[in-house]
Design brief:
- The chain has 2 domains: 113 residues, Rossmann fold (3-Layer(aba) Sandwich); 105 residues, Rossmann fold (3-Layer(aba) Sandwich).
- The strands form 2 sheets. A 4-stranded parallel sheet has the order 2-1-3-4, with helices on both faces. Strands 6-5-7-8 form a 4-stranded parallel sheet, sandwiched between helices.
- Helix content is 43%, strand content 17%.
- With 233 residues, it is of the alpha/beta class.
C-alpha cells in the first residue's frame, strides 16, 4: 500500500510568543481539517526544526508537499524551500504561497472592522516587503483585492525592503486627506516584530495580523493551506 503524501507546513519562524502560538494553532487547525494527512511543522528561520530536518523524519521514499505559510512567494520560497526540496532524498513539491488570494482580503477586511474601521477612514495596507519583485507585485495585488472587498481605495506600503514604507504612506494619506483617520491593515500572518513596526507607523488605528494568539484561525486560511496541499499532492 502506498504511503500517503505528508504535508510539511513551513512558516517563517518567530521569537514572539504570541506569534508562535498563533501559527501553531493554524497548523493544528489544518491537521484537524485533514485527518487522513500527516501534517508536520517546520520553519525557514528562527525556530526549529527546519524543513530538511522535518523531511528527514519521514519514512524513506515517502513523498511530501511543503506548503509555505508565507503570504507572498519571495526568497524563502524560490531559494530556501526550493533547495530543501531538491536536496531531499524523496519526492518533494513546494506549493505556492498563501497569497494573493481574495480570501485573505476577506480576513483583512474583518480585522479592519474589528479594529474600528469607519466610513471616511483612509486605509493603508502594511506588507512585510521583499527584495523579490514578484513578492512585491503580489502585495500590490492584495491591495487591489482589499480595495474591492472594502469598496474603497487602499494604499499599499511595506515594512522593509520595498517602497513606500508604512510611515511615509500613512503621512501621505494624512496630508492628502486632512481630517480623515488613517487605518493600517496589517498584512502579516502573525504577531511579531514586524507587526509592532506596523503598529508604530503613526496611524490612528492598526488592525491585528491575520492570525492572533487568542482567536481561532480563520477558516479561509485553513482552506487555502489545505487546497495548496491538495493541488500538489
Amino acid at each position: 500500500m502506498a504511503q500517503r503524501t505528508a504535508l510539511v507546513a513551513a512558516s517563517h519562524g518567530t521569537s514572539d510568543d504570541d506569534g508562535r502560538v498563533a501559527v501553531a494553532a493554524l497548523v493544528e487547525a489544518v491537521r484537524r481539517a485533514n485527518p487522513a494527512v500527516d501534517v508536520l511543522d517546520s520553519f525557514v528561520d528562527v525556530q526549529q526544526p527546519d524543513v530538511p530536518a522535518t523531511l528527514g523524519t519521514l519514512e524513506p521514499g515517502r513523498a511530501a508537499v511543503v506548503v509555505p505559510l508565507l503570504l507572498s512567494a519571495g526568497y524563502h520560497v524560490h531559494v530556501d524551500l526550493a533547495e530543501a526540496a531538491s536536496e531531499a532524498e524523496r519526492p518533494v513539491r513546494v506549493s505556492g504561497a498563501l497569497g494573493p488570494d481574495p480570501r485573505l482580503a476577506r480576513v483583512l477586511a474583518r480585522r479592519l472592522h474589528e479594529a474600528g474601521l469607519a466610513d471616511g477612514d483612509r486605509v493603508v495596507l502594511a506588507a512585510a516587503g521583499s527584495s523579490d519583485a514578484g513578492a512585491v507585485a503580489d502585495c500590490w495585488t492584495t491591495g487591489r483585492l482589499l480595495a474591492a472587498e472594502l469598496g474603497r481605495d487602499v494604499s499599499v506600503s511595506f515594512i522593509s525592503a520595498a517602497d513606500p514604507r508604512v510611515p511615509e504612506a500613512v503621512a501621505a494619506e494624512r496630508a492628502a486627506h486632512p481630517g480623515s483617520r488613517v487605518v493600517v491593515a496589517t498584512y502579516l500572518l502573525a504577531p511579531g516584530y514586524f507587526a509592532g513596526l506596523a503598529a508604530a507607523a503613526g496611524a490612528d488605528l492598526t488592525s491585528a495580523p491575520l492570525l492572533t494568539a487568542v482567536d481561532p484561525p480563520a477558516r479561509e486560511l485553513v482552506d487555502i493551506v489545505s487546497e495548496l496541499f491538495g493541488r500538489n499532492a
